[in-house]
């Protein structure tokens, strides 16, 4: 129902910053919560951050609280993940996702019905 394309990944040194972007098309963007997940090799995909339809409510995993910021620009159909003070353990493929139910907000993978292709983030020590 919606197509999501992530960008902005790359290689960064520990302590550095990156901003990921996710562009959406194909379905009404502003009615849905958006989230970021990540998956490292050999591990399950895990929740990182989410924001409600308007961007006024945010939710973060404990591991990134205080370091990452999720935001959205509904006029541009884009959601962002600003990552600061990056750590080697942040290395993963980062996926953008849209919730299946309008005006919801959650942190479980099964609540998100649409996924992007992912963008690689590598943090060196």
Number of strands: 11
The averaged pLDDT comes out at 95
What is the helix content?
Answer: under 10%
The total of helices stands at 0
Low-confidence stretches: none
Q: Report the biggest beta sheet as strand number plus sense, adding barrel if it closes.
A: 7 strands, mixed
Could you say which overall geometry the principal axes of the C-alpha atoms support? globular
| Beta-strand proportion | over 45%
Rg is 13 Å
User: What quaternary form is this?
Assistant: single chain
Q: How far apart are the first and last residues' alpha carbons, in Å?
A: 40 Å
**SS class:** mainly beta
User: Could you give the order of the helices and strands?
Assistant: EEEEEEEEEEE
Molecular structure report:
With 125 residues, this protein is mainly beta. Helices cover 0% and strands 50% of the residues. It has no helices and eleven strands. The protein has strands at 3-7, 10-13, 18-25, 34-39, 46-51, 58-60, 68-73, 78-83, 92-99, 112-115, 119-124. The strands form two sheets. Strands 2, 4, 5, 6, 9, 10 and 11 form a seven-stranded mixed beta sheet that branches. A four-stranded antiparallel beta sheet has the order 1-3-8-7, with no helix packed on it. Strand 7 (68-73) and strand 8 (78-83) form a beta hairpin. The chain is globular. The chain starts with a strand and ends with a strand. The mean pLDDT is 95.
